[in-house]
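Quick one, T. Sequence first:
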Amino acid sequence: MQGNDVIHQLTKNKSSLYVSITLTNGTTLYQQYGTFSVNNETDNYRLYLDGPTEGTLGDSMLDSGSTGGDLSGMYFSTPDRENDKAPLYHCAIDFGGGGWWFHACCHAFLNGAWSSDSWHNPWYPLVSL
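Structure tokens:
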């Protein structure tokens, strides 16, 4: 068992999700989501995410103010398996070649290979600095 199969097994009875990011200046920010689970492969590892959400990072996975941010209910996309809802993009390829639960395309993409000067790509908008 590997990858998303492990996440599915760990979360199939509903869990919470805690995201913690440490900036290059040493500041640590976090966001916690009340409900988190990932379905199995036959359902394309569909993400279920719900509140309550709280933290200093800001909510970029449920309510970012646009359709690109609500990741709950989205299928997992990879460069060879497009499951996003962006008609003009293949998000997994256009945003660095990693797998993620893209909508149209993303405000949160924690699997990307980002440099410290590309902060807007892994988590946007950043609420607290």
